[in-house]
């Protein structure tokens, strides 16, 4: 069972912890198990909002499948300890993912994990992050960014977006959609986050028929899905499927399926897969289609 470890710093922002924690807890309820652990220097941690949190004072053993999240805090306060920074470095070096919310990016910077990597943080402290860590590539006005298993987010509510992104990459877009709907959160923010999931971008509508079609595509996006199959699942004609889907999302069902395949392929490539392996894993016949799609989207992705 993957473990999600929250490193709590005194004067931590409650929502920076609670948002991502709720995402992973809800995922657990829906059949995607996670163990949530909270660690700190002391067993009680004061939040900005006045609620005291309980935490473990010793770190658990971690595997590459585990995730460490550093929520943001209000300064000035004592920085993360050298021991905590060492844990962050070692976890990433072993193949694990390290994430931050808001000012939590400072801990990643102190650990040297932002050097040479794209990152973001709350707009109020973006310039300060760039000044403190000149080797980091601070990208402004983004909800979240992932670069080589380092995930940073803008803060407060964007921590939830980041956590949904991590659910998508680990369990697929259908799982993320289940979590978002269970939490009653908006599945569409805006287009400023480069890593925002296609599911989160095109799930903001209220058409139940199209949601059912998307559910099917998301579960079976690696398969060939003829329009007749989608129409049968939706209980309407093929023409109606195309019309309703286009009205709700601006896409054809095939274009939506292709976007899901491309997102999953990019994740596999980021984990070291070859283009050929990634292409076949997501349902393309060979690597040529994946190469063409990546080349087509490269300018908008800033590649």
TrEMBL record:
Where's the HTH araC/xylS-type domain? Answer: 211-303
Q: Which SUPFAM superfamilies match?
A: Class I glutamine amidotransferase-like (SSF52317), Homeodomain-like (SSF46689)
Q: Identify the keywords attached in UniProt to this record, alphabetized.
A: Transcription, Transcription regulation
Q: Which Pfam families match?
A: DJ-1_PfpI (PF01965), HTH_18 (PF12833)
Transmembrane spans? none
Question: GO molecular function of the protein, one example?
Answer: DNA-binding transcription factor activity
Record-linked Gene3D superfamilies? 3.40.50.880, Homeodomain-like
- The protein's name is Transcriptional regulator GlxA family with amidase domain
Species source reads: Streptosporangium saharense
